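REQUEST ID: PR-0412
SUBMITTED BY: lab tech R.K.
PRIORITY: routine
TASK: structure prediction, single protein chain
INPUT:
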Amino acid sequence: MAIVGSTAAPRRSDDRLMWLGPARVFYAGLLGATAQRSLGGHGVYVSPTGQPLRMRLAGGSWQSGELLVVPAQVPHQVAAEHPLVLNLLVESESVNPALLPSVLRHCGPVDAPAFAQSVREGHACLLAIARREGPAGFPDFDSLFFGAALAPPVLDPRIRTVIARINADPAAPSPAQDCAAAVGLSFSRFLHLFKEETGVTFRAFRAWKRARRLLYHVRQGASLTDIALDTGYPDSTHFSHSIRQIYGLRPSDILAGSRRLAVHQ
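STATUS: complete
OUTPUT:
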């Protein structure tokens, strides 16, 4: 890595950055007082200073470490003394679970100081590039953080078609019955095959993709009602409930904590 930031240096508000891609997210920003959350991708939390983060899985006992790993759809809660956290998110349907890097095969604290440091260095690299030339100069995500491209999954083409349809427009109504009919499967066979191929239920997958769209709105200044409608929720009450279940934070808290966040796509 060409640019290395000091892990002991104080973090400024202009260190906050989110890099959003269709299958990857890098976030360097406020953690907030999160309740239990359940994200739809393989998550990695790294302490920006080396101070331990704390985590509990599904309401269990607290564990600590500078590097925490959580597989997709696993309920968890994260806390830290430092206000900022570094977070990688890899969409579960975009990678082959049998060929994941060793660090992503864990659940809980992982003793991998070299990888944790590489994430901090990746953050410093992105900050430098963003200030110098903007996100057009960002490197390949997987190469930056994992050293090589992560292997894609081998999926049934019918399930791949449905995934592409939802990813293309997460806000659009996509009832399971319609998706099943579109690929020539019965309703029950479709639900079974989707879970078998992706490891998650269709309902959980669709809920996550819709909630993920919120990340694209955190700096747009729209009202919560407008964001709810733009992301496909029928009303602000449903929107708030779903976002709290998935992120462990109220939508208003997410927007408030993103005021100084630089968002790059």
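NOTES: The CA atoms of residues 99 and 151 lie 6 Å apart.
REVIEWED BY: pending
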